[in-house]
Amino acid sequence: MGRPMHLWCFGHFGAPILVFPTAAGFAHEWDRQGMVAALVGLIEGVEIKLYCPESNVAEAWTRRDRDAAWRLGRHDAYEAFVLRELVPWIRRDCCSTSMRVAAAGASLGAFYAANLALKQPEIIHYALCLSGRYQMAHFTDGHRSDSAYFNNPMAYVAGLRGAALDRVRGSTHLTLVCGQGAWEEGCIEETQRLADLLAAKGIHHTRDIWGHDVSHDWPWWRRQATYHLTRTFGRSG
């Protein structure tokens, strides 16, 4: 990335979960927004361990003073950082050379989690995606390139077939969660559409649509994350 990267960690033992922030991009976001406190039972019960890096959403996806090719290049650099530096560091921290990790995120962080799980299923075995955006052509102004295609789940999932599809089918699971209330416009439609694509391709997933009172906001994401991470990683789940 060409600069130091911040990483906040919570827990001493348990299933490693790589947490991607929203568009704010801050490593401390899940702590500041009460997500860590909501998950304290799983963390102190040594059932999960959270690894929360900063991201470069504002550089790669929401920035408008640089062209799409440059911004996609910055996303590719961040993905390389995650795969070549961060995941090996997590594995060393967990005293394993090959341990697979889970991923999680809300809003644009959900895109990061889903995108990584779908492209790197041998590394990411599970992704919890809350109120995500998955049609990334909205952010790239019609730019066409391999990077634009392979960072747009709505495009490349539809094109998966053969050995590439089998690789995803056999190795990962996505949990797609979204409310139907305030500020979920776009997210609910894209969540449903991605779930439909996963179903059509036979890719393991859970579709969990919450009610019309459920908004695109932290109080609901705390409840959703607690529910699904407890079901997936909690000993009583």
List keywords for this structure.
single chain; Rossmann fold; alpha/beta
Give a quick precis of the structure.
By secondary structure, the protein is an alpha/beta fold.
Descriptive report:
- It is a single chain.
- The chain has 237 residues and is of the alpha/beta class.
- It has one domain (7-233): Alpha/Beta hydrolase fold, catalytic domain (Rossmann fold, 3-Layer(aba) Sandwich).
- The chain is 45% helix and 17% strand.
- It has helices spanning 29-32, 35-38, 40-44, 57-60, 68-93, 108-119, 146-150, 153-159, 162-169, 187-201, 218-233; strands at 7-10, 15-20, 48-53, 101-106, 124-130, 173-178, 205-209.
- The chain has a seven-stranded mixed sheet with strand order 1-3-2-4-5-6-7, sandwiched between helices.
- The mean pLDDT is 95.
Task: Compile the SSE list and pairings.
Blueprint: E1 7-10, E2 15-20, H1 29-32, H2 35-38, H3 40-44, E3 48-53, H4 57-60, H5 68-93, E4 101-106, H6 108-119, E5 124-130, H7 146-150, H8 153-159, H9 162-169, E6 173-178, H10 187-201, E7 205-209, H11 218-233
Parallel strand pairs: 2-3, 2-4, 4-5, 5-6, 6-7
Antiparallel strand pairs: 1-3
Helix pairs in contact: 8-10
